[in-house]
Write a structure and sequence with these properties.
156 residues; 29% strand; seven-stranded mixed beta sheet; 4 helices; 23% helix; alpha+beta
Length: 156
């Protein structure tokens, strides 16, 4: 199934907001509604939000800080994967990994040499997912104590 990243519009907003991670993942990933509120609240972090589609079905949400001037610990960047959520019904199908690959290709094309993200540590959390994709710890924590990890983006 082809995964695409699409703009969030009036036509798809409700479906995207309705997406939910599994209950046991909620301590690691907030809701799409909260992410969109954060995007509005922290406009200086240059949020770039997209719906993740598998074919014509909305399956997830992704949000980046897009080429922002870093102001740690609150604004990490310049390229920061701020939010990734795949609905619980669609997990385990590779949609999250493909989303990260597409995001990495997009920011690489903009001149990025690395993509940063962070995660809440703990059993059942996303640490293994990011490790499998090639992210490595920077040794730093964000303002909330999340572990910051880096994906080096090659020139090819």
């Amino acid at each position: 199934m082809v995964v695409t990243l699409r703009e969030i519009t009036d036509e798809n907003r409700a479906a995207i907001i309705a997406l939910r991670v599994a209950p046991e993942q909620e301590r690691f990933v907030g809701s799409v509604r909260d992410a969109l509120a954060d995007a509005a609240r922290y406009a200086h972090a240059k949020p770039w939000c997209r719906a993740v589609y598998a074919g014509d079905e909305p399956v997830g949400f992704v949000m980046l800080s897009w080429n922002v001037s870093p102001r740690p610990p609150d604004v990490i960047g310049p390229w920061f994967l701020w939010k990734l959520a795949i609905d619980e019904r669609y997990q385990g199908r590779g949609y999250g990994a493909e989303t990260v690959r597409q995001v990495a290709a997009l920011v690489r094309a903009e001149g990025a040499t690395q993509l940063l993200t962070s995660y809440v540590p703990g059993d059942g959390g996303p640490a293994g997912f990011y490790r499998r994709l090639g992210f490595t710890p920077t040794g730093e924590l964000d303002g909330s104590g999340e572990i910051i990890v880096r994906l080096a983006l090659s020139e090819t």
